[in-house]
Amino acid sequence: MNSETAISLGGYFVLMLGIGLYAWRKSTSNVSEFMLGGRNLPPAVAALSAGASDMSGWMLMGLPGAVYLAGFSAVWIAVGLTIGAWANYRLVAPRLRAYTEIADDAVTIPDYLEKRFGDRNRNLRVIASLVIVVFFTLYTSAGLVAGGKLFEASFGYDYRFGLILTASVVVLYTLFGGFLAVSLTDFVQGCIMFIALVLVPIVAIAAVGGWSDTQAAATSIDPDYFDWFAGVSTLGIISSLAWGLGYFGQPHIIVRFMAVRSVKDMPATRRIGMSWMIVTVIGAVLCGIGGLAYVTQNSIALADPETIFIVLSQTLFHPYIAGFLLAAILAAIMSTISSQLLVSSSSLTEDFYKTFYRNSASQTELVMVGRVATLAVAIVAVFLALDRSSSILSLVGNAWAGFGAAFGPVILLSLHWRRMTRQGALAGIIGGASTVLVWLFVPFTIYGQAPSDAIYEIIPGFIVSAILAVAVSHFGKPAPATLEKNFSAMLAQQ
């Protein structure tokens, strides 16, 4: 490893751990502070935290790699995600922030669902928690795969060393600092990602000779490179756009909405979050395009397209700046891993330990259990990530679909439809998650293709979940109107 690059990365690790130490001293005295930061996040921190925890290694490795290989036909995913993020800010954010506070200060999604529907049997909490733990363990492993690949491609280190180093730093600051540490580190990481995704594509395209030379180099490899519809079917476009449906059900993203200071801050949060997302998504796409042109022009052998951002960082910049840019990849990876670890540990602590084992546990005990749960989930995720052949985009896509299908329709309906029932919510979660698992693992074909190759699994999962939630709700009794009245009064005051 170049010494200057090592210094930059070392400084980044120290900064992250320092923020974790600050947050540990500032706000981990009780469960609400450890898991939601005391519901006191400013708009900028909440917005960049949501964005950074959302995009992960997909933003700097998965998306540039997909565009590098397939051209503009791979951009449909980015379009779908941008539309979905905007809809999430409009349809979910303000209502979820208000509803979770008046629902006896619910701090997790299963906690909110139980209180929203008055589920005394607690079946809803258990099923929702199981879905979160299972899919987040898979999701976390995707981030660790990206960390391992980063250190392997950048410095020639063993993949497993990079994986364990990434996991160790994330676990340390999440373990001690809780939600505030995760949110503050996400804010810093979001800023680093923003700068990197503006800087790298500009320099790469300039190095090739400008936009016209970049276009010429890309089309020399594939004449249809800039054709949005080349080599992609109508179902393929629909599948890519459907990634946007996943936003409504991602616990690690929507929990940021629960932690914003006030509903009044939501418009500012939305404007900051969407501005950040649009710029960074465009930057990631341009990294793939500029990367292909640069590699082609300079006859560089690229074994793994998902490492194109790494190659550009190392070849175009001074080692100190390269270290900063590689820190951007770590920032994307670590911000998502930390968010997922915290949501998983929150669910294990609040929805299993406190609910079924130690209802009288003290706040200190629950915070300690949360830390132990964080470590346990991380260990399992490391084990799953040992297979370095795993595709980052594939792993993320599977987990994203699982959450989007299981929780998306249920969250939307619970916030906008008063007649929804506990049984409807339960049917929606089970039906959505089961459909995704069937689509991924049951051996059948659609027009000679594996189901997930024919159409993205979130589409059938989301449809099944929505139909079951509505249909079953029509045969049950809605939850008491008390929460609805308090909710309406709170929104009116805001």
UniProtKB/TrEMBL annotation:
<feature type="transmembrane region" description="Helical">
    <location>
        <begin position="6"/>
        <end position="24"/>
    </location>
</feature>
<comment type="similarity">
    <text>Belongs to the sodium:solute symporter (SSF) (TC 2.A.21) family.</text>
</comment>
<keyword id="KW-0769">Symport</keyword>
<comment type="function">
    <text>Catalyzes the sodium-dependent uptake of extracellular L-proline.</text>
</comment>
<keyword id="KW-0472">Membrane</keyword>
<feature type="transmembrane region" description="Helical">
    <location>
        <begin position="187"/>
        <end position="208"/>
    </location>
</feature>
<dbReference type="InterPro" id="IPR018212">
    <property type="entry name" value="Na/solute_symporter_CS"/>
</dbReference>
<keyword id="KW-0915">Sodium</keyword>
<feature type="transmembrane region" description="Helical">
    <location>
        <begin position="317"/>
        <end position="343"/>
    </location>
</feature>
<dbReference type="InterPro" id="IPR050277">
    <property type="entry name" value="Sodium:Solute_Symporter"/>
</dbReference>
<dbReference type="InterPro" id="IPR011851">
    <property type="entry name" value="Na/Pro_symporter"/>
</dbReference>
<dbReference type="InterPro" id="IPR001734">
    <property type="entry name" value="Na/solute_symporter"/>
</dbReference>
<dbReference type="Pfam" id="PF00474">
    <property type="entry name" value="SSF"/>
</dbReference>
<feature type="transmembrane region" description="Helical">
    <location>
        <begin position="159"/>
        <end position="180"/>
    </location>
</feature>
<keyword id="KW-1133">Transmembrane helix</keyword>
<feature type="transmembrane region" description="Helical">
    <location>
        <begin position="392"/>
        <end position="413"/>
    </location>
</feature>
<feature type="transmembrane region" description="Helical">
    <location>
        <begin position="364"/>
        <end position="386"/>
    </location>
</feature>
<feature type="transmembrane region" description="Helical">
    <location>
        <begin position="276"/>
        <end position="297"/>
    </location>
</feature>
<keyword id="KW-0997">Cell inner membrane</keyword>
<feature type="transmembrane region" description="Helical">
    <location>
        <begin position="425"/>
        <end position="448"/>
    </location>
</feature>
<protein>
    <recommendedName>
        <fullName>Sodium/proline symporter</fullName>
    </recommendedName>
</protein>
<keyword id="KW-0813">Transport</keyword>
<keyword id="KW-0812">Transmembrane</keyword>
<feature type="transmembrane region" description="Helical">
    <location>
        <begin position="67"/>
        <end position="87"/>
    </location>
</feature>
<keyword id="KW-1003">Cell membrane</keyword>
<keyword id="KW-0739">Sodium transport</keyword>
<feature type="transmembrane region" description="Helical">
    <location>
        <begin position="228"/>
        <end position="248"/>
    </location>
</feature>
<keyword id="KW-0029">Amino-acid transport</keyword>
<feature type="transmembrane region" description="Helical">
    <location>
        <begin position="454"/>
        <end position="475"/>
    </location>
</feature>
<dbReference type="InterPro" id="IPR038377">
    <property type="entry name" value="Na/Glc_symporter_sf"/>
</dbReference>
<feature type="transmembrane region" description="Helical">
    <location>
        <begin position="126"/>
        <end position="147"/>
    </location>
</feature>
<keyword id="KW-0406">Ion transport</keyword>
